[in-house]
Structure of DNA mismatch repair protein MutT:
Amino acid sequence: MNSLLQVRVTGILIEDERILLVKQSVSAERGWSLPGGRVEQGETLEEAMIREIQEETGLIIEVTKLLYLCDKPDSSQSLLHITFLLERLAGELRLPSNEYDLNPIGDVAMIPIRDLTAYGFSEKFMTIVLNGFPEAGSYQGLKSQIGL
């Protein structure tokens, strides 16, 4: 029997009013996403976040704050989606090898926060980022509540 719920972590790294994104097919409307991925068996949430960011972007980070817990029950397998605020410790942006990825990453970039809608993100999500993540550390219900 498959697990009833998968856990996915995503990270938000902001530097100089820019946000870290990866170019990866999310939906027909959006080809860019926040970096992150599924938590593997035996990993803590923090370990998964650190691993995913390093694999996808080449950066070494630390988790500084829990931003939001959200549900995505309409996925092929229900997801618990956890978003963290990150800080860069070391590393330079680079493309991943994509050797094990069924949905490869085509680019990695720091883009201006005010350009998020041009990258397919909702106005709601851009506003949340610009306003410093109101209600950070809280359960938000459906992922759409934070505009993702």
